[in-house]
């Protein structure tokens, strides 16, 4: 897939790794905000006891921990991510939740360290779009799945249908210069046809793409902004280094942009997520 001018994949990955390691605990704390989507993706995956499952770009293992409860003790779940701090956070929480058998492997999603035909099912939750070369990651998923194995993926929908992310990005674009390390658009797989073709080109079959509505409520504009930072990885790393005055300007702009979503004392934002399923 194409990239912004000046895009440096290696530098981008390093920044993302650093950023997500930094926000690992807060990212995990934000799980309730996305619980409905997590349940929908797991339902689409149709896991069965005893299966071997890969959670790719797993972060702190939100999906992996839930999947483990469905396939253990006879099966296994491996959480994989480039940010080792995120995986460590996930393992700690898994142990606290009584899921001590969760496995973790720090590796690049575009160059997986697993044997061919190793897994029955692969999960990719809200992350495929941020990889520099998602086509490489999808090809790797095809390689590590067994014949007939299942894939379940979620991605943000079209930009105009994802106010949860678009409002923050619009404010950043209006008030800050372009980033030194260009970022792929998180909406670049938001067209169902594009997502379908990405999976089809990698050799997957029985592909189905279904829209899912995700409603998120925030008590205040500041709560919305903090939730965005807690999801933003490398972007959060850069934003948190801004002068206090600049951060205040961004927060004020976000509050103005959220006005149409006022819901009583807070704000409710409904966004579209695409859930794709396919077979190896």
Structure, described:
The chain is an alpha/beta fold and 280 residues long. Helices cover 42% and strands 23% of the residues. It is built from eleven helices and eight strands. Strands 1, 2, 3, 4, 5, 6, 7 and 8 form an eight-stranded mixed beta sheet that branches. Helix 5 links the parallel strand 2 and strand 3. Helix 7 packs across helix 11. The longest helix is centred in the N-terminal third of the chain and has 14 residues, at 9-22. The radius of gyration is 18 Å and the shape is globular. The two termini are 22 Å apart. The mean pLDDT is 93.
Major sheet characteristics: 8 strands, mixed
Q: Give helix and strand order, one letter per element, not per position.
A: HHHEHEHEEHEHHEHHHEE
Computed Rg: 18 Å
How would you describe the shape?
globular
N-end to C-end Cα span: 22 Å
Instruction: Name the assembly state.
Output: single chain
Q: What percent of residues are in strands?
A: 15-25%
Average pLDDT for all residues: 93
Helical stretch tally: 11
The helix content, as a percent range, equals 40-55%
Number of strands: 8
- What structural class results from the helix and strand content? alpha/beta
pLDDT < 50 stretches: none
Concise synopsis of the structure shown:
This protein is of the alpha/beta class. 42% of the residues lie in helices and 23% in strands. The longest helix has 14 residues, at 9-22.
Topology:
Elements: H1 9-22, H2 24-29, H3 35-45, E1 52-56, H4 62-71, E2 76-81, H5 84-96, E3 103-106, E4 119-125, H6 134-144, E5 145-156, H7 163-175, H8 192-201, E6 205-218, H9 221-229, H10 234-239, H11 244-257, E7 262-263, E8 266-279
């Amino acid at each position: 897939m194409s990239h912004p001018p000046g895009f440096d994949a290696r530098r981008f990955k390093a920044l993302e790794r650093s950023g997500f390691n930094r926000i690992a605990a807060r990212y995990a704390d934000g799980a309730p905000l996305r619980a409905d989507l997590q349940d929908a993706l797991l339902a689409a995956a149709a896991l069965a006891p005893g299966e071997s499952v890969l959670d790719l770009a797993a972060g702190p293992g939100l999906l992996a921990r839930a999947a483990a409860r469905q396939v253990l003790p006879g099966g296994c779940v491996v959480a994989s991510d480039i940010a080792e701090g995120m995986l460590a956070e996930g393992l700690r929480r898994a142990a606290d939740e009584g899921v001590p058998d969760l496995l973790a492997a720090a590796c690049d999603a575009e160059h997986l360290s697993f044997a061919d035909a190793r897994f029955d099912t692969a999960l990719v939750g809200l992350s495929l779009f941020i990889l520099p070369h998602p086509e490489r990651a999808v090809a790797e998923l095809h390689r590590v799945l067994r014949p007939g194995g299942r894939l379940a993926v979620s991605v943000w929908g079209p930009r105009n249908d994802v106010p949860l992310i678009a409002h923050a990005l619009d404010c950043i674009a209006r008030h800050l210069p372009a980033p030194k390390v260009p970022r792929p658009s998180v909406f670049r797989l938001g067209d169902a046809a594009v997502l379908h073709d990405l999976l089809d080109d990698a050799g997957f079959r029985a592909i189905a793409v279904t829209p899912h509505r995700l409603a998120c409520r925030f008590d205040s504009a500041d709560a919305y902004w903090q939730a965005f930072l807690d999801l933003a990885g490398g972007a959060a790393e850069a934003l948190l280094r801004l002068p206090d005055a600049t951060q205040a300007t961004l927060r004020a702009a976000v509050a103005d942009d959220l006005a149409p979503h006022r819901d009583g004392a807070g704000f409710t934002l409904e966004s579209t997520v695409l859930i794709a399923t396919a077979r190896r």
